[in-house]
Hints:
About 25% of the residues lie in helices and about 20% in strands. The chain is an alpha/beta fold and about 170 residues long. A hairpin with a 5-residue loop joins strand 6 and strand 7 (about 160-165). Bound molecules: zinc ion (ZN). Zinc ion binds near residues 130, 131, 153 and 155.
Amino acid sequence: xxxxxxxxxxxxxxxxxxxxxxxxxxxxxxxxxxxxxxxxxxxxxxxxxxxxxxxxxxxxxxxxxxxxxxxxxxxxxxxxxxxxxxxxxxxxxxxxxxxxxxxxxxxxxxxxxxxxxxxxxxxxxxxxxxxxxxxxxxxxxxxxxxxxxxxxxxxxxxxxxxxxxx
Length: 166
Ligand SMILES: [Zn+2]
């Protein structure tokens, strides 16, 4: 039996992202905290980037879902610090994005430390979700939504969307 805090977390966590409905807000790593006290619940989320136009939709969806589950008062708060990073996307989220043909951001080379980090840290590579090649090229800065970028694979020639890395 899932009760109290964990129940509210689960209901909030399963909210699909409005821009990327193949993943939940938990998969994207934007769900930060769920605090409930009786019939009141406070949900804290961090936008994927400041000014994310999807945030009011996420807040409305969270409110609807939690009210339907019996919580009378729902407060959705946004927290901007620390800023969201694509490293917060969970393994399940990465898999779901890849399964939908959307390239998750690459994490390789992010953790090079020390004074040589800037010299040796490779530019994050974007892997083709269809053939796995890293010979990909960004073709446009605006993909289907604000947090995506359009790429084309040099290997299989297929265009695809990638999640903006930051
Ligand atoms: Zn390819």
